[in-house]
Structures are given as C-alpha cells and as structure tokens.
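Note on ligand handling. Small-molecule inputs were canonicalized before submission; formal charges were left as drawn, and no protonation-state enumeration was performed. Where a ligand contained multiple stereocentres, the stereochemistry in the source SMILES was retained. For pyridoxal-5'-phosphate, this procedure yielded the string shown in the input block below.
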Amino acid sequence: MADAAYTYDYSPALVPAADERGEGMWRWRRLLPLDGADVFPLPVGGTPLVAPPRLRAALDLPGLLLKDETRSFSGSNKDRATALCLADAARRGAPAVVAASSGNLAVSCAAGAAAVGIPAHLFVSTHTVSPHKVALMRAYGATVWRVDGPYEDAYRLSEAVCARLGWYNRNTGTNPLAVQGKKTVAFEVWEQMGRTLPDLAYVPVGDGTTIAAFVVGCEELVRCGVAARVPRVIGVQATGAAPLVAAYAAGRVDWTPVPSTTFADGIGVGDPFFGRAALEGVRRTDGEYVAVDDDAIRAAIALLAQTSGLLAEPAGAAALAGAIAHCAQHRPGEERVLVLVTGTGLKDQRWLPQGGGAAIEVGPSLDAFLAALERADGSDST
Ligand SMILES: Cc1ncc(COP(=O)(O)O)c(C=O)c1O
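Structure output:
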C-alpha cells in the first residue's frame, strides 16, 4: 500500500539504475514529491550499511546488518524528513519553520533551517528534553520554546502556533513529507543489499513515523516490481512508553495513552501522533511489536559501541535491544536481519556506556607508564 498522501505511477523506471548518478537521498527523486537537491545544501541520505563481524559473532546472528543513520548531518534519521520539508518550505518562501520534538527532530530542523536561511521555532518539553540537545539547537541559531508539560503538550502548542501564524509546519506526525523523506532509508537498504530487502527489520518507535515510512518504502519497491516481498517489520518501543505494543497484541488500531517513564527520550512518546499508521504498517508486513526495558537499551548501547565502534543514543540503540530479545526467542538462523540505528550517542553524553575501557592516571615518563601498566595488568588478572 502506498502512503495515502502520495502515490506514484509505479514501475521499475522510478528506481535509479545502478550506474545512475545522484547524491544520497535525492538519488530517489522519481519516488519523491520534490527534488530538493538544488535547494537543500546539506548532504542527506546515503548512510552506511554496516556488517559488524564482532557483533554478529557475539549475538550469533550471521545475517545482521546495521543501517547507520548516526552518520547523517545532525546525527539522526530525522535529517531525511528535514531535507524534504525544508526544501519545500524554502520553495514556498516560508517566513518561519516550526517543529515539536523530543530532541533530535529539533536539532535536525535547526541545522537544516540554518542551511536554507529560514528562522526555526522549536517546541520541546521541559520534562524530557536533553539540555545538550537544546544547546545544539541554539548553536544552530534556532529559537527554542521550552514547554512546561510532556512532549504531547509541546506538539499541540506548536500545531496551534502554525495554525495562528501561518508558519511552516515540519511536525513529523502532521507534514506528509516527513514519511516521504524517511521512506528513503528502505530504498537505500535495498540498493546496499544488492537490490534485495532483508527478511526481518527492527525499527524503533516513538511517534511512529520512522516505522510507517520504512514500511511504505519497502512496499513501494514491491509496487515498482523490483522487490519480491516486504520484510517482516518489528516495532520496538521502550517498556516505559509502549502503548503500541499492547494495542498491536490486542489487534487494535487505537491505543490507551500512557505517561512516558523511559530514559530513551527519542521514543518516550506515550500517545504517538502517527500511531495508527505505525500499527497498520507493521500489520501489513505480518510483523510484531516488542518492548525493551531501559536496562536492555543501556546494554545494547554498550554492546554496539564495544563490538562495532558505533555509538548510539538510547532511542538509536533500542532497535538493537529489540532484535537481541526477539531473536533470542525466534532464532532467525541465516535470515538477513536489519537493525536501524537511528541516532548518535555523541549529542547527549549522559548516556555513554559505563564500565567500558579504563582511564588511568600516569606520570609523563616511560618508566612510570610501564609500572602503571604492570599494576593495571595485575589488577586485571586478579
Ligand atoms: C534517535 C531516534 N530514534 C527513533 C525515534 C523514533 O522515531 P518516530 O518518532 O518516527 O517513531 C526518534 C524520534 O525522535 C529518535 O530521535
């Protein structure tokens, strides 16, 4: 099924040929509502697909692949939607761009707005927003509105502001271009996997746009006639904000809102603004929803960093935590298992893994170093 807001005249001709030129996400311009390459100056899309040998061995998942969205210009998958929305805003001559965010979307929007020269007004919840991310938004020159309420209140206020002032709305659950931008991650995975889709895909879920867009992207490849079938898509929520897990298990398309208690701010959404599409999309793939607790997310951050050299924030590592828990039960064997790593750990250092490598005081001489090394080795072996 295509995204209801946009359909295309699907055929293999919409898919870029292997030798066709085109930068990052704009390579897929025939499957996008607009080609922003000449308007949006930052590089976007084209993130690496990593086959991590040590992580594969540690988890006994020989077919594991990581789509590393941490390598995007602001360090998260939000940049794909930002690029499309801000190209649109720039073309329309928007006086200002507005977004509500748990953090990453606002940082992304601040960077993108700076690049195209539109003032950004960002609405965040004082309850959950990371102070480091607020500092980043301001560093890019954006105005940050700190709302005393949960994320959902910040979202509603930002919608009211757009309605009253006519400012451009880049909200993930409202602007249909967000799904169009984010679906390109599926296209890239297909191309990077030798023009096939994985068997299983694990995707973190907050508002639900990322997962709904991933499903749309896979479905469009099938409709173009270049993929045989979509992967089973597994939505991963934090136990402390898992309204869709219960709704999916009950076979429903609505959910009971919950207060968020997870530390994974990017997915700390108790009443998702794109939940219905997120539930329906996963159901069309015959997928599942799973919940992982904060300890499992912390462990996934550490494992990812220490076996693959990739640093994720909590929401960015949640899908890996979900894959670990789910694969332990449903042994996927040789199946190709994709995990979306959606956000970098460099933006909020509160959640860096503890207990990794050591930091040891040492004097400036070689003798002092050798003595310290001996002591460290001794304490290692005791
Ligand atoms: C790093 C990261 N991963 C995943 C998500 C969840 O994406 P969505 O809200 O589209 O479900 C977010 C949302 O902010 C995020 O920042």
